[in-house]
Write a structure and sequence with these properties.
It contains 17 helices and 23 strands. With 588 residues, the chain is of the alpha/beta class. It folds into two domains: 165 residues, Rossmann fold (3-Layer(aba) Sandwich), CATH 3.40.50.1070; 406 residues, Alpha-Beta Barrel (L-fucose Isomerase, Chain A, domain 3), CATH 3.20.14. The protein has a six-stranded antiparallel β-barrel. α5 crosses α16 and α8 packs across α9. It is found in: Cytoplasm. It catalyses: L-fucose = L-fuculose. Converts the aldose L-fucose into the corresponding ketose L-fuculose. Its EC number is 5.3.1.25.
Length: 588
């Protein structure tokens, strides 16, 4: 598999201790180190990188009783590529002398809830120091008192440790990577007006750019691995089934023209992947520079219209790269956004890095009320719903053809996907000739229907002048419609594209008072749908990056943000805006 060459980020565990010798420190050494090893064991058995590898934890060489040991720990963490830290302690420690001072590293403290030593007192003192220094940190403190010899991690503490680790690992993984724009702005879409300062200051990422003509150059000059092209074309003939052609006869292509289109879109797929992550085989063709790629953890393809009015669209390329299975077998998805919507690409990254799953990129196309559905089809659904549909980057994993062993439809993380799962996704996808009125250069669009009953989180970043980035989140479910109802509704927009019928979970308040309000409050034409209800993880991640959340339907008790947010008033969402504005972007 072709992928970024990168050193895996590790999680640093900092066991802090009361520095007073001659009895105090000595009595706490074993208990403090037990906490550190328990946290490391928990994380190393539950947290994975997006490629499936379990995360590694690095524990300080000794307990940290003062500034010298804190500095020694920081030096070790630099050598070991630690990207986030968790401080653990069962006791009082010297507050500002023992904290992690790296301004860019997400940080949390677990203070043991016990009665023998004041772990909670250190937790409060250290958090106060962090807040005073402008280094927000997360507070982890169990609700129930534990015995001093209890080495277990309570469930509520585990939940916060894992949520912090997932979000913190995402932050650290983004740092130093690239977003690659292939082309520029597509049809005036705001998300494809790439905001370089956002990527640099909020995500710690670089921006890379190539013109779409670079794909044409590589096509014309055969800058690709021909052996892989031959393998891919053979595989496509076996697994990619053509679908309906809705074009008028004068715009339909001959068998020879279709064969040529298939060869081109397959080559585009390989070329775009090589642009992102490189391909060592190109060096043997005397293309050493091209072999390196752009270190892109995500990319976007402008496509419309400067490419698609003349050449095959990027729909096959985008869908296949975003899927966990192709001619090379099962693999993590490559994050590639339709229409170079860089902000949607960031959401795809968030969803992928938090879960390891492939992501559905979609237009937020239509709100259907119960009354409108009944008027058009004669069928009255239980609630209104939103039609999510787009021609390009929706992963084929979105068909819902992965199974959990009990017949339930899921989208698995890449490391759990089997070849059989992947083949079923392609079996339930048709590749329809591109609609000529949209794509004069031809191509193939994926056509499928997402299975109903699957939990999804719909999310989107938007840039607001004067505020910066804001995040929207809507947890809900895909739904099934009667087949004839689906057919009627789907044909009213574009039946050759992938469809997900989505119902958000309503709260009866504000943007979630009804389904219509969710769509009416959505801030852009695109969204990402991630399998599972991951809204709480997204909220934690956003707070680490200083991105306020302007809309969500996550239960308040699940919201986990740095303790410093409590100093910005009592309303949770107002706190978030004020804190993010005060502390500013993570990397500014």
């Amino acid at each position: 598999m072709h992928s970024l060459v990168t050193t895996p980020v590790k999680i640093g565990i900092r066991p802090t201790i009361d520095g007073r010798r001659m009895g105090v420190r000595e009595s706490l050494e074993a208990q403090t180190m037990r906490m550190a090893h328990a946290v490391a064991e928990l994380l190393e058995s539950h947290i994975r990188h997006h490629n499936g590898d379990f995360v590694q934890c690095v524990i300080a060489d000794s307990t940290i009783g003062g500034v010298a040991e804190a500095a020694a720990c920081a030096e070790k963490f630099k050598r070991e590529n630690v990207g986030l830290t968790i401080t653990v302690t069962p006791c009082w420690c010297y507050g500002s002398e023992t904290i992690d001072m790296d301004p860019h590293m997400p940080k949390a403290i677990w203070g043991f809830n016990g009665t023998e030593r004041p772990g909670a007192v250190y937790l409060a003192a250290a958090l106060a120091g962090y807040s005073q220094l402008g280094l927000p940190a997360f507070s982890i403190y169990g609700t129930e008192v534990q015995e001093a010899d209890d080495s277990s991690i309570p469930n509520d503490v585990q939940e916060k440790l894992l949520r912090f680790a997932r979000a913190g690992l995402t932050v650290a993984t983004l740092r130093g990577k690239s977003y690659l724009s292939i082309g520029s702005v597509s049809m005036g879409i705001a998300g494809s007006i790439v905001n370089q300062s956002f990527f640099q200051e909020y995500l710690g990422m670089r921006n890379e750019y190539v013109d779409m003509s670079e794909i044409k150059r590589r096509l014309d000059r055969h800058i690709y691995d021909q052996e892989e092209v031959d393998l891919a074309l053979s595989w496509v003939k076996q697994y990619c089934q053509e679908g309906i052609d809705v074009n008028s006869p004068e715009h339909q292509r001959t068998a020879e023209q279709h064969a040529e289109l298939w060869e081109t879109v397959v080559k585009m797929t390989i070329i775009t992947r090589d642009l992102m992550v490189g391909n060592p085989k190109l060096a043997s063709l005397n293309y050493g520079e091209e072999a390196l790629g752009h270190n892109a953890i995500a990319a976007g393809f402008q496509g419309q219209r400067h490419w698609t009015d003349h050449l095959p669209n990027g729909d096959f390329m985008e869908a296949v790269l975003n899927t966990t299975y192709d001619w090379n077998g099962v693999r993590p998805p490559y994050i590639l956004a339709t229409e170079n919507d860089s902000l949607n690409a960031v959401n795809m990254l968030f969803g992928n890095l938090l879960t390891g799953q492939a992501q559905i990129f979609a237009d937020v196309r239509t709100y259907w009320s119960k009354e409108a559905v009944e008027r058009v089809t004669g069928f009255r659904p239980q609630s209104g719903f939103i039609h999510l549909i787009n021609s390009g980057s929706a992963t084929l994993d979105g068909t819902g053809q992965h199974t959990d062993g009990q017949g339930k439809s899921v989208i698995k993380p890449a490391w759990e996907v089997t070849e059989e799962d992947g083949k079923r996704c392609y079996e339930h996808t048709r590749w329809c000739p591109a609609v000529h009125e949209y794509f004069r250069g031809g191509g193939y669009s994926s056509q499928y229907l997402t299975k109903g009953g699957m939990p999804f989180t719909m999310h989107r970043l938007n840039l607001i002048k004067g505020i910066g980035p804001v995040l929207q989140i809507a947890e809900g479910w895909s739904i099934d419609l009667p087949e004839n109802v689906h057919e009627i509704l789907n044909k009213r927009t574009n039946e050759t594209w992938p469809t997900t019928w989505f119902v958000p979970r309503l709260t009866g308040k504000g943007a979630f008072s009804d389904v219509y309000s969710v769509m009416a409050n959505w801030g852009a034409n695109h969204c990402v749908a991630t399998y599972g209800h991951i809204g709480a993880d997204l909220i934690t991640l956003a707070s680490m990056l200083r991105i306020p959340v302007c809309m969500h339907n996550v239960e308040e008790e699940a919201i986990f943000r740095p303790s410093a947010w409590n100093g910005f008033g009592q309303d949770k969402e107002g706190q978030d805006y004020r804190a993010c504005a005060n502390f500013g972007p993570l990397y500014k």
